[in-house]
Design a protein that fits this description.
Length: 466
């Protein structure tokens, strides 16, 4: 292949809605730091090793995202692109590299392109390893939203492009556990487009661990490179939207699984609630304990549902952005664009949206149910507690009436006993009962009578209220 180039397009989340203005996620600078590590360890381009000194989001080699505020345009350097220098190969030619860093709304994006020093140099499968593509794979770049590797090359019309694309895809991930699978085939600006997904078998559902591969082979001398240059920004933003759609869907599925786990736990709480109120006597302590657990779980469930709704909005926004980019690419390409990209937006994205909406519809009734459960438990606990408090209050009132009345009667009786000062003797047939015993006995009887009277009066008053 001549006019060969290998480009890495990587996308990393800078901030989310939960960060305050000016704040970023904890690993926002991971993309830039990993690129520097690649420059220090394998692709030792001078400009790549010194990348921090070129980016406006760094000052004295320290990450400072506040320096990006108000930055126009979206580039994170003061030039169109950054010339990283060149590296020699054992076959006598040099590899040049340039880099373009961007801030696309909430996302860091980078275009790192490697190409032979002369367009006329032919690059075949063995020469591809001089570009060290394994160091541009997700295990080294760790872009949170995902990445795309794009190969462009020009060949003779007689070239078996299908076989060549297959060999290139395999060579890109050689020595790793990634398995390249062709997903689509079409045309881009007059050249053949082969699309692969290199899947990590250990994390099948994580697009950030997979490598999206585009191989563009020009076998008809089409003006592909020129048209791609005109559509550069639209292609970059289309790839960004593509990766964000897959990333957001992955987050949505993760939150749905978490919500289902919480739902199962809350269902068990409902069964526990039913057992507590089905007994002959309501277990107030058990209900109080249950009421202390459910609100936290219910809140977590609500957060999952809220996040799903946020993801639904975000994926809709990125689908719209993808459509806009695709329409502009079609305009530049005389209404021609890869059919697979149109299928992705019309079928795949629709399916993803419908799945998220189905999850939301499935989980929403649970939110209402658990809210009602909390209110029901709270109502029962408050009612039971009020009844117990009222019963205790009535008991205190009855005892107060009884002891108070008994004390009054005892005082009256004592005043009428003239021998109260005689010595206290033991009760026996030989001794007449001491007046104290008569006073004690009459006091107890009076107390019991007043307790009975108080109980009758209080219950009679409550009966009238009822």
């Amino acid at each position: 292949m001549k006019n060969f180039s290998l480009s890495l397009y990587a996308f990393h989340l800078r901030h989310t809605l939960t960060e305050l203005p000016g704040e970023v996620v904890a690993d926002a600078n991971l993309l830039w730091e990993n690129l520097v590590k690649v420059g220090e360890g394998s692709l030792t381009f001078v400009g790549l090793k010194d990348l921090r000194s070129k980016l406006i989001c760094y000052q004295n080699d320290k990450y400072d995202p506040k320096r990006e505020i108000g930055r126009i345009p979206e580039r994170l350097i003061d030039a169109q692109d950054l010339d990283l220098g060149s590296l020699p190969t054992t076959e006598g030619f040099k590899i040049n590299a340039n880099l373009q860093p961007f801030l696309l709304n909430d996302t860091y994006a980078v275009d790192l392109t490697l190409l032979p020093e002369l367009p006329s140099i032919s690059i075949d499968i063995p020469q591809l390893q001089h570009f060290k593509p394994s160091f541009l794979l997700p295990s080294n770049i760790q872009a949170s939203l995902g990445q795309t590797l794009l190969i462009y090359g020009e060949v003779e019309p007689s070239e078996d492009c299908d076989e060549l694309a297959k060999k290139l895809a395999i060579a890109l991930v050689a020595g790793t556990n990634l398995n390249p699978v062709r997903t689509q085939q079409g045309e881009l600006f007059g050249s053949l487009l082969f699309e692969y997904q290199a899947i990590d078998p250990d994390e099948l559902d994580n697009p950030a661990k997979q490598c999206h591969i585009l191989i563009v082979i020009n076998n008809s001398q089409a003006a592909t490179a020129t048209l791609a240059g005109e559509a550069y920004e639209w292609l970059l933003n289309l790839l960004c939207s593509y990766h964000k759609i897959l990333y957001i869907y992955q987050l949505a599925r993760q939150r749905y699984r978490e919500a289902r786990t919480i739902y199962s736990e809350l269902e068990n709480k409902i069964q526990e609630f039913n057992s507590l109120i089905s007994e002959n006597q309501i277990q107030l302590s058990g209900l109080k304990s249950l009421m202390g657990k459910i609100p936290k779980k219910s809140f977590d469930y609500t957060r999952c549902l809220q996040d799903l709704q946020t993801h639904n909005t975000a994926i809709t926004t990125n689908i719209t952005n993808y459509k806009i980019c695709l329409e502009n690419i079609q305009t530049i390409g005389s209404r021609n664009s890869p059919q697979s990209w149109q299928v992705f937006i019309n079928k795949e994205c629709k399916k993803l949206q419908e799945q998220i909406q189905t999850d939301i519809n499935y989980l929403t009734p649970g939110q209402e149910l658990f809210g009602q459960l909390v209110d029901t438990i709270r109502g029962i606990v408050e009612t039971q507690q009020a009844e117990r408090d009222r019963s205790l209050e009535n008991t205190i009132q009855v005892l107060g009436i009884g002891f108070g009345g008994g004390a009054i009667i005892s005082g009256v009786i004592v005043q009428d006993i003239d021998k109260i000062n005689q010595p206290l003797t033991a009760i026996s047939p030989n001794n007449p009962p001491h007046p104290f015993y008569a006073s004690l006995f009459l006091s107890i009887v009076a107390t019991l009578l007043f307790i009975a009277l108080g109980w009758w009066w209080i219950n009679k008053g409550q009966g009238r209220k009822n």
